Amino acid sequence: MSYRVPEPKFFGCTQSMVLAEKIAMAYGVTLGKVKFSRYSDGEFQPSFEESVRGARIFIIGSTNPSSENLMEMLLMLDAAKRASARHITAVLPYFGWARQDRKDKPRVPIAAKMVAKMLETAGATRIITMDLHADQIQGFFEKPVDHLFASTLFLPYLKKLELDNLTIASPDMGGSKRAYAYAKALESDVVICYKQRAKANVISHMELIGDVQGKNVVLVDDMVDTAGTLTKAADLMMERGALSVRAITTHALLSGEAYERIENSQLKELIVTDSIPLRKESDKIEVLSCANLFADVMHRVHNNTSISSKFLM
């Protein structure tokens, strides 16, 4: 007598509900029902409106600030654990607080490790995420981590553009490894931007290492926050003779004056994923959905098959 593995259950956190619905649809299941009760002071309580006992469940939600997004994920993980779910996978298209992955000066926290421990304590038995700010964050977890790369989405898009004299660029020294990986896949040159910050989100000086004269440049980064680095790099490259400058960034935080900077910059196009919902649309911003990527990996995880083909970088 053969045993059929029961279908997993999918649930979405509030701010990632649109993406969660896309993932569930791509997988071929219906998103589960969760009710959120709120008190007048802002405290909230999620409750699963269906049984999860003995089930494998996927809870989908990016944990970008505000901190409510992280708190919502933690409460849903705890609720699932207390409801006797068998496997609880936290699906974090964007792993927030990841820029605090080390002590870069005295008397500061390592927030990324603290968040990792909180997720595990709350009940996560597995983590699926995409393009972590730093690869070593995987080591902060004691549970299995499936770290996906958005290059599986971006590389086909770039190849379709058929850009002549393509050059891949990193907006800072820390992203050089990512830039070289893209350059290897696309058989292109690489240039690097060297920047100095006056403080967080404020660049005091930027210099270009490499030649962009007559090149179509594609900047590669894991996230775009205020867009200060990307737009400054794009303007610098156009001054140095680049034919065009595009940027691909996995996570579109786009806070502060980011939209205005992008509109007023010489960036031809900004290509992002829907790991974080955009606050508003822009003619310069192209969104590639990561729903099929996550659905495929979640299907492989549920059926205990290899996901190594999704690790292109």
Automatic annotation (TrEMBL):
Q: What is its EC number?
A: 2.7.6.1
- Quick one: a GO cellular component term? cytoplasm
Q: Which domain of life is it from?
A: Bacteria
Keywords per UniProt: ATP-binding, Cytoplasm, Kinase, Magnesium, Metal-binding, Nucleotide biosynthesis, Nucleotide-binding, Transferase
Xref: SUPFAM superfamilies: PRTase-like (SSF53271)
Which Pfam family name is an example for this entry? Pribosyl_synth
Q: Which reactions are catalysed by this chain?
A: D-ribose 5-phosphate + ATP = 5-phospho-alpha-D-ribose 1-diphosphate + AMP + H(+)
Can you give the residue ranges of the Ribose-phosphate pyrophosphokinase N-terminal domain? 9-123
Query: GO: which molecular function terms?
Result: ATP binding; kinase activity; magnesium ion binding; ribose phosphate diphosphokinase activity
Protein name, per record: ribose-phosphate diphosphokinase
Origin species: Sediminicola luteus
